[in-house]
Structures are given as structure tokens and as C-alpha cells.
Amino acid sequence: MTDIEVKDEKEFVVFTIAGDIEQDDSQHLSQMLDNYLAEDQKHFFFYLAVSPFLDSAALTMLVTKAIDIKKMGGDIIFVALSAEARETFSMTRLEKYFQFFNTEEDAKAFIAHKAIYG
């Protein structure tokens, strides 16, 4: 079973996910993202340090949401990605849709820089 913990910060929402991300999880995450987007939240951090597997439904949902969120001026940012998940993004060539950082501080600096310089 996948454990999803959500922390709503002022400038971004943090999703910490432990476990494989499969179709049911994707639908749940999609609904949560839609709710935050309706509240005008545009920046999302995903911690997947202990999420080794993302199925095709998860990847499709994340890419679709990333495209929509980018059009709104936001980002889906992965922080501390597991080696297995990073390999999945690399093998599927989906890295271009997301930002990847090793630390939350680096991700926050990216958001701050983007807010100033666009």
C-alpha cells in the first residue's frame, strides 16, 4: 500500500510518497492536484525517495499534470528521487517535463529564482 503524506506550504505543496505508485494512487494524486490547482497553487514538490516503481498510469498522469501546470506558470518538482524512479524517468525520456533536485533547499531556490526572473 502506498503512503501519501501532504504538507501545504505557502508557496508550494509537498507530497511525500512511500511505496509503489500505481493506477489507484495516480487517480488519488490527480484529484489532490486538481484540488490544489483550484486553490491557485502552482508549485508541487514530490519526494519519492522510497518509491521505487511508477506504473504507466502514474507516469501519464504526472506528465499530463506537468504540462497543464507549466501552462499556468507552475512546476512539478521531484526532490530526493529514488534511483529506481530516476531510472524510470530517464529510460522513458520523460525528464524534460519536470525539475529534479537533491534537496528541498535547492528546489525552493529554483522557485524563488523563477518568481524573480521568470
Task: Please explain how this structure is put together.
The protein is α/β, with parallel strands linked by helices and 118 residues long. The protein has a single domain (3-111), classed as STAS domain (Transcription Regulator spoIIAA, 2-Layer Sandwich), CATH 3.30.750.24. 47% of the residues lie in helices and 24% in strands. The protein is built from 4 helices and 5 strands. Strands 1-2-3-4-5 form a 5-stranded mixed sheet. Helix 2 links the parallel strand 3 and strand 4 (75-79). The longest helix is centred in the first third of the chain and has 16 residues, at 23-38. It is globular.
Describe the structure in brief.
47% of the residues lie in helices and 24% in strands. It is of the alpha/beta class and 118 residues long.
Defining key terms:
single chain; five-stranded mixed sheet; about 120 residues; 5 strands
What is the subunit arrangement here? single chain
Rg, nearest Å: 13 Å
At CATH level 2, the architecture is 2-Layer Sandwich
Q: What is the H/E string?
A: EEHEHEHEH
Helix content bin: 40-55%
Coarse structural class: alpha/beta
Largest sheet: 5 strands, mixed
Note the topology:
Elements: E1 3-8, E2 13-18, H1 23-38, E3 43-50, H2 56-71, E4 75-79, H3 83-91, E5 99-101, H4 104-117
Parallel strand pairs: 2-3, 3-4, 4-5
Antiparallel strand pairs: 1-2
Helix pairs in contact: 1-2
